[in-house]
Amino acid sequence: MAFRSGTGTGLGVAAPDGGFRGLMAGESGYPGALDTLVARGGTALAEAGRALLAGKPVDLDAVELLPPLANPGKIICVGLNYADHSAESGFTLPTYPTIFARWASSLIGHGAPILRPRVSDQLDFEGEFVAVIGRGGRHISKATALDHVVGYSLFNDASVRDFQMKAPQWTVGKNFDATGAFGPFLVTADELPPGCRGLRLQTRLNGEVVQQASTDDLVFDVATLVSTLSEAVTLSPGDIIVTGTPAGVGMARKPPLWMKPGDVCEVEVEGLGVLRNPIADEQGRQRAAA
C-alpha cells in the first residue's frame, strides 16, 4: 500500500505476522512508487515486497493511506456489468461493455472523506473491484488477457446521480472531486483466483449491507474486458479497469438512499480487504440542493 506520513510518502507490504512493514521514499532499500513497480511487472513487485519486509512496522491508523496508484494513465469504468444492476436501473442488459472514464483528479484513498458536492444531495455508492494492467498491449486475445493483469484492488465509484443523468453521457456525474475511493491495497494476481472469480463483493453503509454479489455474476469478466478494450485502445501498465457494481444502489431504492455527512461506506471483496470512507460535505456547502 502507498501511504503518507508527515511530509513524506512511503510504501508498505503485509507482513507474515499480520501487521505491515514499509519504507519511506529516500530510505535505503526503498523500491520506488507502485506506479513504477507495476510497469516493471510481477517480478519487480515480488522483489519490492521482500525489500519492504526489511523496513519498519507501519501502523495503518497512524498514516494516511493513498490510492495505490497515484496517477493511472487510464481509469476505464464499466457500467451495467451485473445483470441485476442493469435491471434495477431500467436498462436492457448490454451486449457490449458500457464504458466511461474517470479522471485521476477524482481519486482519494482509504479513510479519506468522499465529498457530497455543494450542488447536489444525490451522492450514491457503487462498490466495485479493480483490475490493474501490468503488461500493456493492443489486440489482446481473451486466452492471454489475464497475463496482462498484475493485480487487483477495490473502488467506490461514488456517483452524483442528478448530474450523471443530465445528459446521455455520464462523465460529469462520475468525476466530481473526491468521489473515486481507491484502495487500500494492491493485491497481486497470483494471490487471488484467476480474474478474481468466485469472490463475494459486499458494500455496507453504516454497517448495513446494501450490495452483495459474487464476482462470478459479471456480465463481462475481466479477461473479456481486457480483450475487448484492447480492440480499440492500447492498454498500458498502470491503467485500471473498474469492473462494475451489482444491484442495491441508492438511486434504485424507494425512497432513494443517498449518502450524507456522517455516514461511513465500506466496500469489501474477499482477499482484497476493506475500503472504508466517511462521507463529508464539500467545503462551502451552505444548503441542500433544490
Brief account:
The chain has 290 residues and is α+β, with helices and mostly antiparallel strands. The protein has two domains: 2-65, no CATH class; 75-281, Fumarylacetoacetase-like, C-terminal domain (Fumarylacetoacetate hydrolase, domain 2, Alpha-Beta Complex). Helix content is 13%, strand content 33%.
Polypeptide structure, described:
The structure is a single chain. The model has no long low-confidence stretch (mean pLDDT 95). The strands form 4 sheets. The chain has a 7-stranded mixed β-sheet, with helices on one face. A 5-stranded antiparallel β-sheet has the order 4-3-2-1-5. The chain has a 5-stranded mixed β-sheet with strand order 9-19-18-15-16, with no helix packed on it. The protein has helices spanning 34-40, 42-53, 83-88, 161-164, 222-230, and strands at residues 2-5, 8-14, 20-24, 56-57, 64-65, 75-79, 98-102, 107-108, 114-116, 123-124, 127-133, 149-157, 159-160, 180-188, 200-205, 208-214, 240-242, 264-269, 273-281. 45% of the residues are buried. It has 2 domains: 2-65, no CATH class; 75-281, Fumarylacetoacetate hydrolase, domain 2, CATH 3.90.850.10. The termini are far apart. A hairpin with a 5-residue loop joins strand 2 and strand 3. The chain has 290 residues and is of the alpha+beta class.
